[in-house]
Amino acid sequence: MGKRAYQTWDKGDFSFPLTTFRENLVVRLRDAEGNEISRTEVQTLSIVEKSYWDDFFKLEGCDCVHMKLQFILSEDERNRIRNVRESALRKKLDKVPATNVEYKGTAIPVRASSLPIRREFSGVLERTSSSVKKMISAFETGLTQMKGRRSLT
């Protein structure tokens, strides 16, 4: 589609259409002859995420410019964006393998001096992710430390 430029000379509200979210919004400050004095870039997706952005934006080699940025979307555009996000989330969840950990133990009385725990992992541990294995290891380490503290008392 190519890049588009819009100009304004006055203060106040200024609206213009965007053709893509992938390109940054470039704001240029020009003198009376049209020579560029300064510029700044704003990530378009940041505006979408915040929905309304009221901030002072630093211009290169100059001071700041106060801008209030907002996307005004139609209902169809909102639905399309929501569908794209949901689709991306579904794809991400499909890539993450489902992790099922079975843990069967015996009931532990609080006053017991030892912790007679029986672990049965029925082949599931081989299929679990490393983060779950680390969590199980940390849990077992915590139980061992609890057992040591109780035997000291």
From TrEMBL:
PANTHER family: BNACNNG47150D PROTEIN, OS05G0232200 PROTEIN. This is Uncharacterized protein. It comes from Anisodus acutangulus. The lineage of its organism: Eukaryota, Viridiplantae, Streptophyta, Embryophyta, Tracheophyta.
